[in-house]
Amino acid sequence: MNALVPLPVLLPLCATGLSLTFGTRMQRFQRFISVAVLTAVLGLSITLMIAADRQGPLSVHLGDFAPPLGITLVADRLSGLMLTVSSAVTLCVLIYSLGQGMTDRDRETPLAVFHPAYLILVAGVSCTFLAGDLVNLFVSFEIMLVASFVLLTLGGTGPRMRAGSTYVIISLLSSMLFLIAIAMTYAALGTVNFAQLAEGLPDLSVGVQTLIQAMLITVFAIKAAVFPLAAWLPDSYPTAPAPVTAVFAGLLTKVGVYCMLRTETLLFPGNRIGDLLMAVALASMVIGILGAVAQTDLKRLLSFTLISHIGFMVFGIGLATREAYGGAIVYVVHHITVQTTLFLVAGLIERRGGTTELTRLGGLAKAAPVLALLFFVPAMNLAGIPPLSGFIGKLGLMRAGVADGSTWAWILVAGSVVTSLLTLYVVAKVWNLAFWRAAPPGQAETGTVLESGDDSDDDADEGPDGLPGTGDEGVTPLPAGGPVAAKLREKSVTTTSRLPWPMTAATAATIVLALSFTVLAGPLTAFTDRSAVELLERTPYIEEVLGR
Asked: Where is the composition biased (Acidic residues) (predicted)?
């Protein structure tokens, strides 16, 4: 069974080579390879999760080099669960992107870049969850960074290039800080293997431990978009195509949360910075949701709710109890699916209504009832309406806070309630403006060109709605039959009265996945409780890696 551990990383990387080799001439084969490989990765992830639950952690030393020389990959309950959920979500988003037809836009380039970049991103995410040492974790981050820049800048529009540049600059700064932290750790202990660090770090002085911990937490907080290190996110994600934004919002921020959870439990037990984590969790919750209240563009609004709800996960990490870790893990897997779904729905709304600017939308409940249902269910889930999985995760975190009984814990419980109520207000505002009220004058007609080769930077500061930062800057909607640039090979994105069925089906699949967490709430919470116990014990992980 241990031999299966590297496959969620190796399969997407091998498929990338096949995609690059045959993609330009055999696009159907390229799509088949992508779907088949992600389906196989999902099956492997489920297998590893079940095996880790029954047998304990699984590990493999690549090249049979033992730590600290070799690369170690480890699958335990937490990493198996994260792999399974991320694989399911990335598969759904891939099917959505095929329905959107975004891969057709790569034909002017020497290589069809979407599929290779997407597969590399999946490999990077999988490697992050399986990494057993800091250097391998750093390499995983860099793999994701390279793929992320390609995906963020698909189409080459001015706003996307600027957003991609901002994302890369922030990521490079965090990478530099990460390298410094790795160098300091290796200089102090002569290893970067997690299991060996777990045994060696307690021997260092408290000051050195705290410095290394603070640097690593800062790096992971940037990745997770924890306030006040989240200013880059609302300007980077909304400009990208809907599938890219969905997988970034759903997965990449949770990679940072996962790394915080892993290092705080395995490397730095004792919760020395718990109060600091709870303070930033509260700030993320409140400031993020207040930012969402102020938005009128759906994509930016969802970006701010993303920042806000990261605070719930950091709340659990800051409490550092079994109940809190269990609640945080439940909320992580819930939020991956729900946030991904809402960004996919935002793409459907843009395809149907011509924009994501709420002031220019209306009447969608009557015009597109299926789309209204696809928004309503995950929106209520995000708000934490019983008995959905959002309520289960929040309830677990609040119960952990009440059981802890500290001042910060009670403050976070109150902040969680306020944030949940404001989230309900935000999604209700979206429902009233985009779905419930009558369509406003000037709403885009069916056949309006949303994106074309004329996507230049001539109108860099404002979109067609006159508002900056709405995700459609530089795009001039053209009437049906309007010119489409040659670089799209007669392809364009237009509003349609009937949404492509793969997009609708993929979105529905992510909703079903989120609802399954409600139906299987008992087994899910039992699994996350066992994961929390395993994280706190640390011994099974260390003994598996070191072969004791």
From this structure: 452-464
| Cβ–Cβ under 8 Å, residues 294 and 425 | no
**CA distances for 210 relative to 202, 271, 273, angstroms:** 11, 11, 9
Q: How far is CA 200 from CA 180, 362, 372, in A?
A: 19, 60, 54
Q: Of all helices (H) and strands (E), which one includes residue 72?
A: strand 71-75
Dihedrals phi, psi of 387, to nearest 5 degrees: -100, 30
Those residues with Cβ within 8 angstroms of residue 405's Cβ, 6 or more apart along the chain or in another chain: none
DSSP codes of every residue in 142-164: HHHHHHHHHHHTTT--HHHHHHH
Token code pair at residue 526: 């039992």
Report the Cα 205 to chain-centroid distance in Å: 36
12-15 long-range Cβ contacts below 8 angstroms, 24+ apart: 12/37, 12/38, 12/41, 12/119, 12/120, 12/122, 12/123, 12/126, 13/119, 13/120, 13/123, 15/119
Helix (H, G, I), strand (E, B) or coil at 297: strand
Task: List all residues 6 or more positions away from 293 whose beta carbon is below 8 Å from its beta carbon.
Answer: 422, 425, 426, 429
Instruction: Identify the three-state secondary structure at position 494.
Output: strand
What is the C-alpha radius of gyration for the chain, rounded to an integer number of angstroms? 23
- pLDDT at residue number 446: 54
Distance of CA 295 to the CA centre of its chain: 21
**Residues 6 or more apart in contact with residue 237 via CB below 8 angstroms:** 163, 245, 248, 249, 299, 303
How far apart CA 112 and CA 508 sit, in angstroms, is 27
80, 73, 82: which is closest to 130 by C-alpha? 73
Region of 455 (left: φ > 0; alpha: ψ -120 to 50; beta: rest) is beta
Query: How many CB atoms within 10 Å of residue 176?
Result: 11
Task: Using alpha carbons, select from 85, 155, 145, 91 the residue that is nearest to residue 120.
Answer: 145
Asked if 143 and 152 touch (Cβ cutoff 8 Å), the reply is no
* Count of other CB atoms within 10 angstroms of residue 285: 27
**193 Cβ contact partners less than 8 Å away, ≥ 6 residues apart:** 67, 68, 72, 132, 133, 545
Residues 6 or more apart whose Cβ sits within 8 Å of residue 494:
446, 447, 448, 449, 450, 480
Q: By CB neighbour count within 10 A (0-12 exposed, 13-18 middle, 19+ buried), where does 175 fall?
A: middle
As averages over each run of 10 residues, the pLDDT of the chain (548 residues) reads 89 88 73 91 95 91 77 92 95 88 44 82 94 92 88 74 81 91 92 91 89 92 90 81 87 92 90 87 94 91 94 92 93 94 91 83 86 93 91 93 91 94 94 85 56 43 40 39 31 61 90 93 93 91 85
* C-beta of residue 137 within 8 angstroms of C-beta of residue 128: yes
d(CA 18, CA 22): 6
Whole-number pLDDT of residue 451: 52
Nearest CA to 502 among 4, 12, 35? 35
| Residue environment code for 135-149, b if the CB has 16+ CB neighbours within 10 A, otherwise e | bbbbbbbebbbebbb
